[in-house]
Amino acid sequence: MNKSSSKNFKGKWAWLLAAAIGVSSPVIADPRKESLIVVTASGPNSMDIQRSGTNRPSYQVAVNMYDRLVSFGIKGSGNQLKYDSTVIKPELAASWKLVDDGLAYEFTLRKDATFWDGSPVTADDVKWSFDRAVSLGGFPSVQMKAGGMTKPEQFIVVDEHTFKVAMEKASKLTLPDLAVPVPIIINSKVARANATDKDPWATEYLHKNPAGGGAYMLENWTPGQQLIYKRFDNWKSGKLPQMKRVIVREVPSAATRRALVERGDADVSLDLPNKDAKELEAKGNLMISGTSIDNTIHAVGLNVDFGPFKNKKVRQAIAYAMPYQKIFDAAAYGRGEPMWGGTPGDVSATWPQPFPYDTNIEKAKALLIEAGYPDGFSVPISINLGFAQWTEPTAILMQESLAKIGIKTSINKIPGASWRTKALVEKGLELHLKNFGGWLNYPDYYFFWAYIKGHLFNSMNYDNAEVKSLVDVTLPMAVDNAQYEPNVKRMISLAMDDVPLIPLWQPTLEVAMQPGVSGYVNWFHRQLDIRSFTKE
């Protein structure tokens, strides 16, 4: 790009973004080959993934600004790269081994790794960080619990560069659980210096001031507008990224995001609506990556604390009243894997899999009569406006179909910023559209989060003693254990019969990129790992 065209590009980019989000000051990018401009619907609400109420876009901060001991491998080719849940590779840990008769992992840390301030990364930092993760409570502590890590005593400093995780019992999830975004390694010296008696884990400081040693540092964060990363040139836990600077702009309008990437004013548009992905793919001017998201479904949640939904037959009636194919065509544009129309009694140990329900209005009516609701009832359908591209058309089609069996509905539109509190923390939404993806690619892990009473993603308040018992026993169990498959099949069978959650389809994650941009990886956390991006 010559000097004149570069100047034109900067002016055009600044003008378009200012018009899109009301920003008066333009952003001047670094030379284009070493910088990346990303547009996304919403951005992080915190720099600290372990803080209560942190949203999904904040996961990108954990991934790019902090190291973990280990990470997952990558599989695929071209612009269809995806993380590999079967491969664990080094990050901050140079190596590891099982010790103590298989009841502990011992990690040897890289000796050349430093935090951004130049101080060395030590086993003391790892212990403080892990102690924090299991002590703060909420989502981070439950995530650590999934891998059998529940108390600080399990984290042991052997020497400056040797760290041990002791397990109460061997678990298949312990090592992969250290590769998810939660167990970040924090500069404990900086954190302690900014802690207080009332805030011993420095949550207020780390909320706005990341203190890590990851591949990228924070240049600027304006909540609701943009996040700018700058490369940490002394990063040692992987290959130094090509991108020196990455600008992540929040552009709520899907139409504006599409326009920016089509005109070349953005390099990457994350989480495209399926309609846009289908149309842009047909045009052929951009690279479109649309790969399925492991262990994830778009679904209908039925809160069993709501009167009619206490009755299983009512829940089954709702499942038979869903206009599945219409929803899939209108909301997903046929992109993804249908999760309806399974054969009754034919259950496998895979997840997700089609449930044995299809659209059958007469059967739905009969079940409502059996349940004592011949005239139906009224209930709102709550949707997350942050995902309006699929929730809104789905709710409208549901409303039309449920009316056929006497269920009167209104659509309760909740802003994305409030959704997590309303749906997942307060758990007060009766009939709602939801999405959940399990970070560790095992059926029992999904059930741990979504089907156990009190756990964050069980917005249905479902409580089944047998399911809980099965999950408790199966979660640490090796997949080749003779009881693993029968246990998984049983919990899935119970979920299909009780149906507090009605799967609709397994979605794809759609990302558009300019020609010449490569290295995008579809990660389970659905955020960009900018470390792998390159540009021609």
Q: Roughly what fraction of the amino acids lie in strands?
A: 15-25%
Annotation field: number of helices? 17
What is the overall pLDDT average? 93
How widely separated are the two ends? Answer: 12 Å
Give a count of the beta strands, DSSP E runs of length 2 or more: 22
Secondary-structure-based class equals alpha+beta
Oligomerization category of the chains in this entry: single chain
Q: How much helicity do the residues have?
A: 25-40%
User: Radius of gyration, Cα only, in angstroms?
Assistant: 24 Å
Quick structural overview:
The chain is α+β, with helices and mostly antiparallel strands and 536 residues long. Helix content is 32%, strand content 22%.
Keywords for this structure?
17 helices, alpha+beta, six-stranded mixed beta sheet, seven-stranded mixed beta sheet
How is this fold's topology laid out?
Blueprint: H1 3-21, E1 35-40, H2 59-65, E2 70-75, E3 81-90, E4 93-99, E5 104-109, H3 123-135, H4 138-146, E6 155-159, E7 162-166, H5 174-177, H6 188-193, H7 203-208, E8 216-222, E9 226-231, E10 245-250, H8 254-262, E11 268-269, H9 274-283, E12 287-292, E13 296-302, H10 312-321, H11 324-331, E14 337-338, H12 361-370, E15 378-384, H13 388-403, E16 408-414, H14 416-425, E17 431-437, H15 443-450, H16 465-474, H17 484-498, E18 501-506, E19 508-513, E20 517-518, E21 521-522, E22 534-535
Parallel strand pairs: 1-10, 1-11, 3-21, 15-16, 15-17
Antiparallel strand pairs: 2-3, 4-5, 5-7, 6-7, 8-9, 9-10, 11-19, 12-19, 13-17, 13-18, 14-18, 20-22
